[in-house]
Amino acid sequence: RHRYRPKLSAWQKKVNQAHARIRAIGERANATLKTWKILTKLRCSPHRATAITQAILVLHHVENPLYAG
């Protein structure tokens, strides 16, 4: 916190917490895809790449429910 910055209200803390939860899911998905290096080898249209990426992440979350969010 900065020295003269006012404290956040309870409402703003809840908003920030909800945003962090949603963002964490996306960050974990990106990290997973980067470790597998899938996107570097994928050669197709962006629309099809999106569908393939979503399917891969769904299968990953089914196999590893710890990271489901």
Summarize the structure in words.
There is one protein chain. This protein has a domain at 37-69. The protein is 71% helix and 0% strand. It has three helices and no strands. The chain is an all-alpha fold. The chain is elongated, with a radius of gyration of 17 Å.
- Major sheet characteristics: none
**Percent of sequence in beta strands:** under 5%
Structural class: mainly alpha
Low-confidence stretches: none
Q: What is the arithmetic mean of pLDDT?
A: 83
Oligomer: single chain
Number of helices: 3
Coarse shape: elongated
> Helicity range of the residues?
over 70%
- Our measurement of the CA-to-CA distance between the termini, rounded to an integer number of angstroms, reads 28 Å
How many strands in all?
A: 0
Computed over alpha carbons, the radius of gyration is 17 Å
**What is the string of helix and strand elements?**
HHH
Secondary structure blueprint with pairings:
Elements: H1 10-36, H2 38-41, H3 46-63
Short summary:
With 69 residues, the protein is mainly α. It has a domain of 33 residues.
Note the main attributes of this structure:
69 residues; mainly alpha; 3 helices; 71% helix; 0% strand
